[in-house]
Design goal:
The protein has a single domain, classed as q2cbj1_9rhob like domain (Jelly Rolls, Sandwich), CATH 2.60.120.620. 22% of the residues lie in helices and 26% in strands. It contains 6 helices and 13 strands. The strands form 3 sheets. It has a 7-stranded antiparallel β-sheet. A 4-stranded antiparallel β-sheet has the order 5-12-7-10, with no helix packed on it. The longest helix has 16 residues. It is globular and about 45 Å long. The N and C termini lie far apart (48 Å). The structure holds nickel (II) ion. The site of nickel (II) ion has 3 residues, from loops.
Length: 262
Amino acid sequence: MTFPFKLTAEQILQFHLQGFLSIPMPISPPEELEWLIEEYDNLFATHAGRAEGNQFDLGGADDDENNASLPQILNPAHYAPRLNEGIYLQNANSIVKQLFGPTASAGVAHAIYKPAGIGGETPWHQDEAYWDPGYQYFSASIWMPLQEATVENGCLWFMPGSHEWEVLEHRPIGGDIRIHGLEMTDLTPIRNPVACPLSPGAITIHRNRTAHYAGRNVSNTPRRALILSTGLPSQPFPTHRSFPWNEVKRTARDERAVAAKL
Ligand code: NI
């Protein structure tokens, strides 16, 4: 494994022109992926973070911890500190400095699990739609599967150039305000999206407004993805804007978070 991980000029240009980049060479060696999978599966098996709202069903009503179709854990390294060690994080940090400059760093942000056979689809969305509309962002997410990611088990798809769009209208998935996950309400701008299958430990990187999607997991093995975040510090947004799709949500996850604080 080469370290520091060196991007080509073409890769850096592609990231800035298209709003995403797929890097085929794994940033995590096989022996590291083995222990990452152990830590990862344990977090979901033990429902780590669920009581305080940090583990929930991204794609459903989140009322049954054992039957989530798209379980997600925020800040998994808080529950499994070993995730903060590892070669993948060093390589990710080397990569983001080449894309965002020397002050950028990458940290473990969340984990999204698509169970074998029942793992639900992650509808088209822009990540910024989840965030505080009072800020402008120059950031990116790094998506690393712990096993092969294929079209069949739910690899990511991207819409080239969509990082230049405004944040388009979103709504909770299916219009159900109990669901944390968001989806774009109008898919007509999605034309000729690009699927990005990956080897274990390889990555894609996408910007905060890059529209992306992942299909259902129709394979017979789980699809595990670890997501890192990076970028430059956010700035106050210059004008007023609001994301009403977040204000209407009434999620079980938020209820648990409030109850845990009391
Ligand atoms: Ni996303």
